[in-house]
Amino acid sequence: MILTVTPNPSLDRTYELPGLTRGTVLRATADRVDPGGKGVNVSRAVAAAGHRTVAVAPMGGPEGALLTRLLGDLGIEAAGVPIGGNTRINVTLVEPDGTLTKVNAAGPELSPAEAEDVLEAVRVRSAAADWIACCGSLPRGLPPRWYADLVERSHRAGSRIALDTSGAALTAALAEEPDVIKPNAQELAEAVGRPLATVGDALKAAEELRERGARSVLASLGADGQLLVEASGAYFATAPVAAVRSNVGAGDASLAGFLAAGGRGPEALASAVAHGAAAVQLAGSLMPTPADLDLPSVVTTSDVPLDRALSEPAP
């Protein structure tokens, strides 16, 4: 079972438009609403793969009630922590050529008592978990050390922690030695304070973060592939993608694939890449099922291409 923690979940509403013109009335050709937030997306991908998952998240108002219902419809057990504020709603506008315009709400502000309630919900649910995946930005009211406290408490209870966050929250948590961190190329560069031009630069940055406390680093390098640096060595993997339809949630699908495959070694890296490659070929924030995966197409090697230039990040 994989337990996910999403401190700032959302309802993600997507509108498909014939075109996006400022200052006019736009009529959507289609719309949908999905459970959102990085940890919630990990749970969605785990559930789509047929594994058990529990999603811990603060939830408030009618939006929180709808989020709980939508998770249940997907076979995900929602461990919602009641809060006074309302769960946020994010909006994505999709144009015919695939261009996405996203508007992400700030979300509610959590009180110190509510922040402690989330930590307590994790403690209660973690005994049956093979992994705890803590994902996303921190909402208002939570200090940068909140993830560090969660990692420290979970390690004391004997749990393994995967952390997917950035900025001050990531920096603070490194001292508590999370078992896996999952930055993308931009977050990796931010964490070490310098630009990364090649895969070799990314490898050096990942090694630096391991020296600062992370036990292993799973770095998503976009179209260039993924890099895993852990105690047993460094591994690199790529997979062909016929056409990118949406990259929303692809990194979350990758983390789900990595943890579901054990969370260490080249086999888990191959699973991560297969899940990410499948996700970008699906519409919106749909998560891949086993039928969508193409594991034989993944090329995994311990020969990291140090001189390969990193692709320009997507706008």
3D architecture notes:
It is a single chain. By secondary structure, the protein is an alpha/beta fold. The chain is built from 9 helices and 14 strands. The protein has helices spanning 38-48, 61-73, 112-125, 146-156, 167-174, 185-192, 199-211, 250-260, 265-280; strands at 2-5, 10-16, 30-36, 53-59, 77-82, 88-94, 100-103, 131-135, 161-164, 180-181, 217-220, 226-230, 233-238, 299-301. Helix 1 crosses helix 8, helix 6 (185-192) crosses helix 7 (199-211) and helix 8 (250-260) packs antiparallel against helix 9 (265-280). The two termini are 35 Å apart.
> What is the helical fraction, as a range of percent?
25-40%
Query: Which structural class best describes the helix and strand composition?
Result: alpha/beta
In DSSP terms (H or I, runs of 4 or more residues), the helix count works out at 9
Order of helices and strands: EEEHEHEEEHEHEHEHHEEEHHE
Principal-axes geometry comes out as globular
Q: Please tell me how large the radius of gyration is.
A: 19 Å
Number of strands: 14
- Strand arrangement, largest sheet? 5-4-1-8-9-10
Poorly predicted regions are none
Q: Provide mean pLDDT, rounded.
A: 94
